[in-house]
């Protein structure tokens, strides 16, 4: 289905044409590994900059972990499984029959006092930035596992910082946005000034997601807000373009050419928007999606669920806030074809080792815990299609091609 | 020839001077051998300042300076020791193991410590110091009562004083009157008036009478403290008949009124003739009182002179009444003392009468409670006096007071009227007229259920027919403008009518509006479940509700449009079965509406200006947009602004080929502005155009420049030299 539409698409897919012509769906469906160790839900996953060898996860247990998703050897995976099953979320029940191998935990970064909500890796892979509940943006040195800068003074005064992203030439800027409805731009290079370079206070509600136009193509900052707007700050032109969406915007993902943006909002729809004129090119999810899957359509009404463009803008990959029913705590990942909008795959995300799905709720009754898949990251660069998802189970699942 | 005396001679001299009366032995040396006590001149530099304990007060600058710590305590065993300076840089204060805490007591001498101890003592407020008080004896007379009640100024007096009141003044606004110069008011300042505080009017206190003395007669109070009689004695002076009217330590004091000597009053008091033998049992009487005084003349002759002086001292108390003009009296009184008390009407008491001593209200109250009962009458005591025979007056046993008789009487006013032969008055009770509801209310308020039944009669003069009542009720219905009523009706059609939850009420509202608008001749009939009052109240409610829809007039109406009329579709498709009336929803943002309908595009997009800071632009590697160019931009850019093509140059694509190239570029830009959207505003587009020009050699006109931000040919093309960038973007990034 993809190959028929590829010819008249504005999105460049030259690299993947070979695969498409082969008639083989190379969407990564196989679970390569699971990344364990988090003691709480994982709020953010990101690949290191190209070639994307490593995965950083930001967790509710206030730490950031650096993994190599490729398991070292099949034998070592089983030994570490038992150690990580002591997390409070996963209750030990019967072990799944086939345990996926585990990724290797390389480093743990602990300085946050609250949950980590967003991660961004600089293009040089030497530093990364994180933000979360503690109203500060931390700039980390990857190798020494220490913070280089903490942008907190005169920063976001209230609430959490939902999103942080590198921007500018040579990643000289850090942009953060959070509950205090402001987008703050920090100068990474300036060592003395603790004040933000600029504060963008147009939003009327919390900032949920940020995006920066890639490379040197444009100096634009996109900020998605709960007030249902995506504000595009064009630094070069000095223009602010506001696009209105019917629901709170929770996810932004720019295409590599910067012409289109994938906007996820809380009206159960993911939209591919043409940035030049603000028109909607395609809608994914919800019941407006003509993919014949009316029974279990993708819905997203409450939780910030990330959706990304993957496979060189061939697919739209999104998490799921509901989880699969009666599936032993399985979450789901939805994938649509970018051009046709048809559902490509609906993958189950296992809870993880131990498979504990039952938790004791506040009312004292046991209930099934939903594995909300809230964050998705697609591996850019490198060989092969690969992506990873994280969610409430605290286990990051890495998918790759078979 | 003079020579200096030796020390020995001087000292011998000194002892001879100091103790000239010592003839045997050696005189004691002066107290301090260091000090010459002879009062001889000591030069200033030799003089020493010493404190009261003889310690040196002043020291040299190197021995401690002035007073050397707290009274020379520096360096002493218990004194303050100067600490050496410790640099906090090397030796952090927080690192020191528990620095010695200095207490205020460390700096106190024994005097201060004693003061501090004193301050810790708990004692009653001075106002309550009934015992051990050092106040004058007069206020102590109340004895233990002072423990329970503050003496001195009460809070009210304090408040009054804060408001400017002074003792002796009356309370109230100031009075304009002549100055009352008491003694010589004759000639001075006749016509002038001044503002004075009002006269003080003494409080009339009705003191509970607990004794059996005559009205106004104060008698004598009990034992008097010695101090008071002593002071009296001092005031009496050394007259010869001191023993006549002074009773010594145990004697009765004079009445405390005024300063005058009221000898006659004491005589009057003594004249009543109560002896120690006919004790009445009252403890107010002093059993030790020496009975009636009999004045004996102990001096033969010469008594007259003294008497005269006494009489002259207070002529108002003269035995024989004698006319004295008020002026003279007041002048005499003024001489005697201004404290002579007057009655509360401003007059002196009647001759022969004295002021009763106002006994303390609280004390008498407590005393009267039976705490100090009178002594028991001895058993078997029989009064020697027998009551008079019953025949003289009616038997006291038969005596019935009038009030008791009235109580015992069974007659009501009507019966009494009948007995007296009075005619019945032609009147009716109030209850004949009031309504039953009012009667019930009265009964509820008074708590009496035996009120007569209310008849609710209407006097003939006020009687009205039912139609008149209805008409009167309708007259009280508030009137509404016709325009307002029509507007309210039309608003109701749109679905936003009030009282959506109550169909009947809405109908009544509708009817009211229609009547007011003139569509209907008369109001709908009053519903049965409503009383007249409720009905009328409802009309007022309708009136207030409909008044909102008063149409705007003239200028205002032209400026506004009603919001609900713009969305008739919402009203028609709106939920008809909605029960609760809701306020009309806020006008939707059309962009949000469009987004909800999926009409993304121009409807949902709005473009405004955004002002990135210069540093932001620099970090993004772009030139600041034109409207961000600050006035404090560096001098090079300002100079460039003067040039025609400076704006294009500043985009960073100034060719290196000299002016000819620039001209070509300018030319090309003018043509290329169709694609780039103007050189001054379209940074990216302009640069693309320029890049195209460069590649094309500048001679060909670019037909249509396609803006492709993904592949910036300008960047991939020939880049200008780095110095150009440096000139434009100023300093490098490293120096920040």
UniProtKB/TrEMBL annotation, chain A:
What keywords tag this UniProt record? Cytoplasm, Kinase, Repeat, Transferase, WD repeat
Its primary localisation, in coarse terms, equals cytoplasm
The segment annotated Disordered runs over 68-102
**Compositional bias ranges of the Polar residues kind:** 88-102
A GO biological process held by the record: mRNA splicing, via spliceosome
> Which terms in the Gene Ontology molecular function aspect does this entry carry?
kinase activity
**Which InterPro entries does the entry link to?**
WD40/YVTN_repeat-like_dom_sf (IPR015943), WD40_PAC1 (IPR020472), WD40_repeat_CS (IPR019775), WD40_repeat_dom_sf (IPR036322), WD40_rpt (IPR001680), WD_repeat_MORG1 (IPR051980)
WD repeat extents: 35-68, 109-150, 170-196
A GO CC annotation given for this chain: cytoplasm
Known SUPFAM superfamilies for this protein?
Answer: WD40 repeat-like (SSF50978)
Please state where this protein is localized: Cytoplasm
The annotated regions of Low complexity compositional bias extend over: 75-87
Q: In its keyword annotation, does this UniProt entry include Mitochondrion?
A: no
Q: Which family does it belong to?
A: Belongs to the WD repeat MORG1 family.
Q: What is this protein called?
A: Mitogen-activated protein kinase organizer 1
Supply the source organism for this entry: Neurospora crassa (strain ATCC 24698 / 74-OR23-1A / CBS 708.71 / DSM 1257 / FGSC 987)
Its lineage opens with:
Eukaryota, Fungi, Dikarya, Ascomycota, Pezizomycotina
Automatic annotation (TrEMBL), chain B:
- Using the UniProt annotation, give all residue ranges assigned to the region (Disordered): 85-105, 217-266, 366-397, 562-592, 674-705
GO MF term set: RNA binding
One GO cellular-component annotation of the UniProt record comes to:
nucleus
Residue spans of biased composition, Low complexity class = 562-573
Ranges of Basic and acidic residues composition bias in the record: 575-592
Name a Pfam family for this protein: HTH_TGH
User: Residue spans with biased composition (Gly residues)?
Assistant: 674-687
Q: Which GO terms describe its biological process?
A: mRNA processing
Ranges where the G-patch domain occurs: 152-220
Query: What PANTHER family does UniProt report for this protein, alphabetically?
Result: G PATCH DOMAIN-CONTAINING PROTEIN 1
Full protein name: G-patch domain-containing protein
Q: Which organism is it from?
A: Neurospora crassa (strain ATCC 24698 / 74-OR23-1A / CBS 708.71 / DSM 1257 / FGSC 987)
Highest lineage ranks of the organism?
Eukaryota, Fungi, Dikarya, Ascomycota, Pezizomycotina
């Amino acid at each position: 289905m993809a190959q028929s539409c590829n010819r008249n698409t504005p999105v460049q897919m030259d690299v993947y044409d070979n695969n498409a012509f082969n008639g083989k769906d190379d969407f990564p469906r196989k679970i390569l590994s699971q990344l364990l160790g988090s003691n709480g839900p994982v709020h953010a996953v990101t690949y290191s900059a190209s070639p994307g060898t490593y995965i950083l996860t930001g967790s509710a247990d206030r730490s950031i972990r650096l993994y190599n998703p490729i398991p070292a050897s099949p034998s070592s995976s089983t030994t570490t499984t038992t150690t990580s099953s002591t997390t409070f979320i996963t209750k030990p029940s019967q072990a799944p029959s086939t345990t996926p191998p585990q990724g290797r935990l390389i480093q743990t970064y602990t300085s946050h006092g609250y949950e980590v909500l967003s991660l961004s890796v600089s293009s040089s892979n030497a530093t990364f930035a994180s933000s979360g509940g503690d109203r500060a943006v931390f700039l980390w040195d990857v190798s020494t596992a220490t913070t280089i800068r903490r942008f907190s003074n005169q920063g976001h005064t209230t609430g959490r910082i939902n999103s942080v992203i590198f921007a500018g030439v040579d990643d000289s800027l850090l942009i953060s946005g959070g509950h205090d409805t402001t987008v703050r731009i920090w100068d990474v290079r300036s060592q003395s000034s603790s004040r933000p370079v600029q504060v963008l206070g147009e939003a009327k509600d919390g900032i949920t997601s940020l995006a920066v136009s890639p490379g040197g193509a444009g100096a634009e900052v996109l900020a998605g807000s709960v007030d249902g707007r995506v504000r595009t700050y064009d630094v070069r032109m000095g223009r602010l373009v506001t696009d209105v969406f019917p629901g709170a915007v929770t996810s932004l993902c720019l295409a590599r050419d910067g012409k289109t943006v994938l906007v996820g909002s809380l009206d159960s729809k993911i939209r591919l928007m043409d940035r030049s004129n603000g028109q909607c090119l395609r809608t994914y999810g919800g019941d407006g999606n003509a993919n014949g899957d009316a029974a279990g359509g993708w819905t997203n009404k409450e939780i910030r669920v990330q959706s990304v463009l993957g496979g060189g803008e061939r697919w739209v990959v999104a998490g799921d806030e509901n989880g699969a029913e009666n599936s032993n705590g399985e979450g789901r990942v939805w994938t649509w074809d970018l051009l046709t909008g048809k559902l490509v795959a609906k993958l189950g995300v296992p809870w993880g080792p131990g498979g504990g799905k039952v938790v004791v709720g506040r009312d004292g009754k046991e209930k099934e815990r939903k594995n909300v898949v809230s964050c998705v990251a697609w591996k850019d660069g490198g060989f092969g299609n690969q992506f990873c998802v994280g969610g409430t189970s605290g286990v990051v699942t890495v998918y790759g091609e078979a | 020839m003079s020579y200096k005396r030796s020390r020995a001679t001087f000292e011998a001299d000194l002892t001879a001077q100091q103790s000239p009366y010592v003839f045997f032995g050696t005189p004691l040396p002066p107290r301090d051998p260091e000090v010459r006590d002879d009062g001889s001149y000591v030069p200033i530099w030799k003089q020493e300042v010493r404190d009261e304990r003889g310690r040196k007060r002043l020291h040299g600058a190197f021995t401690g300076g002035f007073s050397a710590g707290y009274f020379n305590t520096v360096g002493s065993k218990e004194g303050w020791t100067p600490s050496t300076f410790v640099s906090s840089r090397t030796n952090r204060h927080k690192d020191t193991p528990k620095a010695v805490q200095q207490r205020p007591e460390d700096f106190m001498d024994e005097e201060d410590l004693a003061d501090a101890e004193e301050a810790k003592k708990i004692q009653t407020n001075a106002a309550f110091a009934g015992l051990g008080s050092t106040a004058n004896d007069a206020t102590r007379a109340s004895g233990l009562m002072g423990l329970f009640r503050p003496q001195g100024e009460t809070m009210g007096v304090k408040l009054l004083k804060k408001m400017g009141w002074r003792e002796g003044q009356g309370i109230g606004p100031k009075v304009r009157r002549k100055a009352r110069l008491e003694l010589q008011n004759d000639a001075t300042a006749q016509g002038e008036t001044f503002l004075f505080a009002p006269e003080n009017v003494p409080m009339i206190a009705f003191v509970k009478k607990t004794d059996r003395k005559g009205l106004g007669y104060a008698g004598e109070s009990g034992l008097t403290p010695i101090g008071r009689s002593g002071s009296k004695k001092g005031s009496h002076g050394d007259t010869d008949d001191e023993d006549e009217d002074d009773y010594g330590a145990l004697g009765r004091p004079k009445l405390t009124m005024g300063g005058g000597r009221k000898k006659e009053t004491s005589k009057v008091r003594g004249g009543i003739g109560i002896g120690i033998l006919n004790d009445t049992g009252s403890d107010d009487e002093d059993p030790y009182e020496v009975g009636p005084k009999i004045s004996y003349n102990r001096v033969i002759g010469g008594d007259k002179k003294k008497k005269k002086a006494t009489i002259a001292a207070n002529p108002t108390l003269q035995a024989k009444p004698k006319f004295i003009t008020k002026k003279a009296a007041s002048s005499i009184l003024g001489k005697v003392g201004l404290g002579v008390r007057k009655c509360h009407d401003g007059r002196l008491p009647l001759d022969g009468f004295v002021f009763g001593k106002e006994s303390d209200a609280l004390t008498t109250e407590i005393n009267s409670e039976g705490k100090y009962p009178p002594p028991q009458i001895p058993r078997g005591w029989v009064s020697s006096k027998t009551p008079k025979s019953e025949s003289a007056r009616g038997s006291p046993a038969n005596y019935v007071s009038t009030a008791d008789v009235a109580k015992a009487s069974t007659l009501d006013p009507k019966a009494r009227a009948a007995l007296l032969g009075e005619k019945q008055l032609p009147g009716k009770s109030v209850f004949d007229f009031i309504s039953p509801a009012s009667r019930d209310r009265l009964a509820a308020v008074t708590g009496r259920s035996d009120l007569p039944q209310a008849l609710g009669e209407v006097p003939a003069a006020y009687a009205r027919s039912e139609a008149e009542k209805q008409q009167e009720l309708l007259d009280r219905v508030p009137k509404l403008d016709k325009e307002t009523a029509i507007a309210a009706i039309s608003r109701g059609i749109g679905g936003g009518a009030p009282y959506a939850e109550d169909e009947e009420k809405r109908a009544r509202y509708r009817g009211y509006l229609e009547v007011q608008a003139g569509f209907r001749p008369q109001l709908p009939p009053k519903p049965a479940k409503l009383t007249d009052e409720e009905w009328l109240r409802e009309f007022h409610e309708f009136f207030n509700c409909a008044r909102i829809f008063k149409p705007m007039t003239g200028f205002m109406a032209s400026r506004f449009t009603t919001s609900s009329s713009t969305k008739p579709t919402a009203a028609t498709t709106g939920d008809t079965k909605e029960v609760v009336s809701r306020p009309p929803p806020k006008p939707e943002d059309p962009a949000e509406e469009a987004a909800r309908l999926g009409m993304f595009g121009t409807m949902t997009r709005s473009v405004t200006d955004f002002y990135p800071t210069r540093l932001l632009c620099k970090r993004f590697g772009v030139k600041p947009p034109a409207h961000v160019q600050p006035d404090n931009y560096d001098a090079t850019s300002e100079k460039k602004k003067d040039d025609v093509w400076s704006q294009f140059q500043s985009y960073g694509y100034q060719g290196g080929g000299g002016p000819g190239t620039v001209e070509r570029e300018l030319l090309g830009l003018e043509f290329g502005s169709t694609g780039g959207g103007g050189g001054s505003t379209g940074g990216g587009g302009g640069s693309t155009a320029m890049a195209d020009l460069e590649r094309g050699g500048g001679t060909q006109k670019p037909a249509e420049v396609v803006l492709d931000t993904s592949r910036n040919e300008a960047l991939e093309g020939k880049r200008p030299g780095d110095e150009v960038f440096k000139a434009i973007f100023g300093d490098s990034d490293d120096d920040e």
